[in-house]
Amino acid sequence: MNKSVDYIGKTVYYLKNYNQFKISIKNLTEDIEVLQQTMQLEAVAPIAKYGDDITAGGNSELTAVEAYTAKKAQYKAKIIELQNRLEIINRIIKKVDRSIDGLEDEEKRIVISFYLDNKTWREIAQRNYISEQWAKKCRNKAVRRLSRMLFGLTAIHEQLDLFI
């Protein structure tokens, strides 16, 4: 399998899932906020009433403090995991947005209409006063250009190999 197909395939994947990525950003942000609020609400950990002397009855309270500390560590780990996912998706969205901005106006309209607005080829052709066939050719050209913008020199070299 040719590697350039992977870059173009990845580009198409990003475009097709753009709207879902946006929703994921909102959901992950909300999940992080809920975990942070939950951690704050549970921050009032029980304190041992009997000092350091475990034989004086402080054992159960100490266990509760340890349990809270373990739970807090789990919350923090989950928050970090969600933040990492959020960062990856945000980075993809920013790259796609910048790349779409780098397209010519006609390409930009066609890509946005087809991938982000889920318009049919007929609707796109009518709205832009072009044929469906031309809209598809323009989309193919735009996806190759987007691929080069998203993945840089690696994608450019791989795509050049197609023409040699």
Automatic annotation (TrEMBL):
SUPFAM superfamilies: Sigma3 and sigma4 domains of RNA polymerase sigma factors. Residues 65-106 form a coiled coil. InterPro entries: RNA_pol_sigma_r3/r4-like. Gene3D superfamilies: 1.20.140.160. Keywords: Coiled coil. This is Sigma-70 family RNA polymerase sigma factor.
